[in-house]
Amino acid sequence: MNEGTNRTRRISNSTSGTSVMVRMALSTLGYDAVDFGPLADSWRSQPGAPVHVQPCMAERPEGLRAEEVQRWFVETPGVPVPATRVGELIGGAVR
User: What are phi and psi of 28, to 5 degrees?
Assistant: First the structure.
């Protein structure tokens, strides 16, 4: 794992052993993986959850009009989030 330099992907599954294979595949593709458990816990990354999209965005400039925000969102590259931070955000999700 290249903490902080690779993109991190969240994985969840209910099949024993699958996570290891998925982690290996993601690693081969240059991603870190954070396993947050069975599919029943996938709500931890749903829209509105702490780990959903926001941590991967650069800091948005203040004072932008709606159309400028949309352009900024499309044109601004995402930022890598370390796997440890993704794990913290997943762990802090509440329903």
Answer: -60, -35
